[in-house]
C-alpha cells in the first residue's frame, strides 16, 4: 500500500495505485491525493456533469472539469452549481 499526505484530507492516507489523469496535474494528484479523496472528486465531477449537462468528450467540458478538479484539490475548492441540493 502506497501512502500519501493527502492534501484534501489533511492527513496520511492510502494513495492511488497509478496516475488517474495525464500531464503535470495528473502527477500532482498522484503524489498528493488519496484514494478516498479521488473518490470524492469523482462524485463531485458526476454532479457537475449532470447539473451543467456537460458532454465530457467535448473540449470545452473537459477544460471546465480540469479547472474544477484543480480547484477541488489545490485551490479554493470547486463550488456546487447555484441552487443544487443534494439528495443525501
TrEMBL record:
Listed Pfam families: Iron_traffic
The entry's keywords: Iron
GO molecular function annotations of the record: iron ion binding
Database matches in SUPFAM superfamilies: YggX-like
InterPro entries xrefs: Fe_traffick_prot_YggX, Fe_traffick_prot_YggX_sf
Alphabetized PANTHER family for the sequence: FE(2+)-TRAFFICKING PROTEIN-RELATED
Protein name per the record: Oxidative damage protection protein
Amino acid at each position: 500500500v502506497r501512502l500519501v499526505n493527502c492534501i484534501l484530507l489533511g492527513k496520511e492516507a492510502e494513495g492511488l495505485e497509478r496516475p488517474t489523469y495525464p500531464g503535470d496535474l495528473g502527477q500532482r494528484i498522484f503524489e498528493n491525493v488519496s484514494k478516498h479523496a479521488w473518490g470524492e472528486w469523482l462524485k463531485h465531477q458526476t454532479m457537475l456533469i449532470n447539473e451543467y449537462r456537460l458532454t465530457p468528450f467535448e473540449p470545452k467540458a473537459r477544460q471546465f472539469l480540469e479547472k474544477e478538479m484543480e480547484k477541488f484539490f489545490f485551490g479554493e475548492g470547486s463550488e456546487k452549481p447555484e441552487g443544487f441540493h443534494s439528495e443525501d
